[in-house]
## 1
Amino acid sequence: MSIFGLFRKQQSAPMARERLQVLLAHERASASTDLVAVLREEILAVIARHVEIDSDKVHIKIDRDENVSILEIDVEIPLAATAQAA
Amino acid sequence: MGKVIVVTSGKGGVGKTTSTAALGAALAQRNERVVVVDFDVGLRNLDLVMGAERRVVYDLINVIQGEAKLSQALIRDKRLETLFLLPASQTRDKNNLTAEGVERVITELKRVFDWVICDSPAGIESGATHAMRHADVAVVVTNPEVSSVRDSDRIIGLLDAKTVKAERGERMEKHLLLTRYDASRAERGDMLKVDDVLEILSIPLLGIIPESMDVLRASNLGSPVTLADARSAPAMAYFDAARRLAGEALPITIPGEKRGIFDKIFGRKAA
């Protein structure tokens, strides 16, 4: 690379290629069943069996990475519900 | 109450999604609360252009069917605090879009956001008519090319017939956004000029976006062009268009047009 290369903008095509590979790998894999979506619904159903879920107090985040997906379910459980279960 | 904008064109591939992302980010950079909504059910791409494709949890169809709350489906942009995306569904059929469902979602969004920008699918079928139905303002994206101009004319007709505003007998505000414009080709006579397109479509001009490598570069990176390189020619043209949308009266400049020294001194209409 010449010294002028340092001042040039970084290439964007490799980034496009990587983003597409990750995205399409996930979309092809979940064409029949989206495991993350199934897990999301089942986990919420289990929680709902024990406490009444206020859907405003549920925050769900997904991050699909190259080799792993991260499913983050954040449920606020009121103290009253904890006392009932005990 | 926020303003609802539909970005539409009839023809595919003219830059609706690019323009939705760029205008949305430009308005959010003015600290206004913006949501961009993808109406292209089954072929969503706004998430990809916005760089949020890995973070989609729920979508517009989930909200319409009552499977998720609107607040759970909205994805906040990682770069701009006031910019949100409501993605389309990739797996569901577009027949899941119902008139009542769309109306409910748009009404709710208008309460929270200053701008609700709807990215229409190509074509003139139900997806496109749902996207335009509740709009206060339409941005008609057109390339200086015969088939695009013809399809834009068709879409303008639909905007005057199939929107809530039109049915109430009100005037539908429509603006032309001319994209992929190459001033040197137009000057050589190899491309329709701005005035040609304006004369044919006769709607006011919102902006002229020059043909540019920066647009592809931005989509490669998953960033609206107004965020990826704010000082590039297309970004500056989108910033101006956003200011005009917000009501500012800015003179239109044709990006990349070669101007003689006399024009520069005396302005475009001189001599």
## 2
Amino acid sequence: MKLAKTYGYLKKDLDQIEEALNKVIQAEHPVLREASTQLLRAGGKRIRPVFVLLTGQLGNYDLERIKTVAVSLELIHMASLVHDDVIDDADLRRGKPTVKHIYDNRVAMYTGDYIFASALEHIASIKIPNTHRVLSKAMVELVVGEIEQIKDKYNWDQNLRNYLRRIKRKTALLIATSCKLGAITAELPENQANRLYQYGYYIGMSYQIIDDILDFTSTVKELGKPSGNDLLQGNVTLPVLFAMQNESFNSFVKETFTNPEKVNHNDMNTLIEMLKKTDAIKNSYHVSNLYLKKALKALEPLPDSKAKHTLQDIAKFIGNRRS
Amino acid sequence: MDINDMKQMIEEKLQHTYLDKYIKKPKIDEEKLLILTAIINNTNLPDIKKKQYIITTMLVQIALDTHDLVSNTNGSDGKKPKQLTVLAGDYYSGLYYFLLSEIEDFRMIEILASAIKEINEYKMKIYYREPQSIHEFFRNVKKVESTLVLYVADFLQQAKMKNISEEWLFVNKLIQEKNQVRAVGFSPLFEDWLHEAPKENYNSLLFKVETIIQEKIVDMKNYFSNGTLSRSSFTIFTTPLVKDILTKETSAVEEG
């Protein structure tokens, strides 16, 4: 089953969001317009808007307002991806060429800034102070997380806490924020909005851990980038942390990355095979499942509704994701 | 509102231990800070609000300037400085939003965001070397330099300050670029124009730039003397820094 099936009934609202996304980033300059819509055309799960819609449906659902928040969140996410591709020197994203690859770094910087500003201009129409406080705080934290990621690159002696804090900022925070913003916009009581934030946080943690697992277990075709790419970039993810407990993997990884620029395809294949032979993947799934259980628990006290069931289904789907 | 105090407050906001270790401290454009302070000082806003507007607008300017430093290649010291330059710009942008969210100023969030959008449109025109004439090229440069401040001036209903601010920021940019050419023989901005104008070289371009600077300085001096500006806004243009630039540039042009 596909993830989109769990929230198929949202299609009409999601189509409206897609339309609004496209409308908001129509720059006048043809290259800026083309570059801004490039990532949009590449598609994506639109998981953040989905969370805004679903949590919004738990309260006073005003589609126009909910849509504004969902569109802005997705644009902020997109702007950060355009800049991330400059940071990672990435040529492909979601299997499609990146803005940085089609044009260059400079255009990618202007495009990211343009999309980011479009998002803020758009969400400024929402006059709920808490919406802006929550979102702006998340945005700063998101960047701090990325700075931390660069700081921790090729640091083989980091611990689990470093990793969890990093993925919290990298992924979980924006999903948690999506859930909370949907709740705030739909005027849910604070305790419910906080529960939904927790749900989003746990789901985000689980989602990122599985993403980090798939980096080793999926094919190039499934990933849209080479397997083991995170490790190649020096990102020490959960499977690597577990695998590092194995002495031969530990010494091989440190030796291989003595000079990261010289790591080749064969080295990476050897590392991936070695990692798969340890318990790293199994243990990582175990941690991911612990977060999923917490996500489901956070939802329990909320009143029963179709949207709540969908949030539960999404959690279960994420737990079973294998590609 | 003291410029040095403002500068210090902005520097405090920009501080980040890890970024400071690997990338150059962002430059605070003092002339832009002066103009902005002049505009904001001319309003009846409470001091705290004035400070917040100056800090957030300057953060946006610094974020944009920082992203202009991201090159298409890695530098000699590897890719880390480039990566952190991207993130530094994003961090300063995030801070502007965060600070205005704290004071629930949704309108200013929108004003600054609209300015960022427009500036990037002009930057693209320059980057894609679209201007067909040197006047058009300079018009775009002027827009990139002044749009942010002009949006704030409009928002604060300081229309009288717009013209002089726009001209002053433009002249200042030309002076900066000219000085860079004299120091290192190169200006990335001027290169964008020279690339499209094969008959032009740095000598002929600098001559045109000097002429424009001279004309604009005369215009500005007239503007100051005809009493269009209120006493409080005029004061900022008579600070030692501005006076020094005006005097130096006038004599440099006169000396030929």
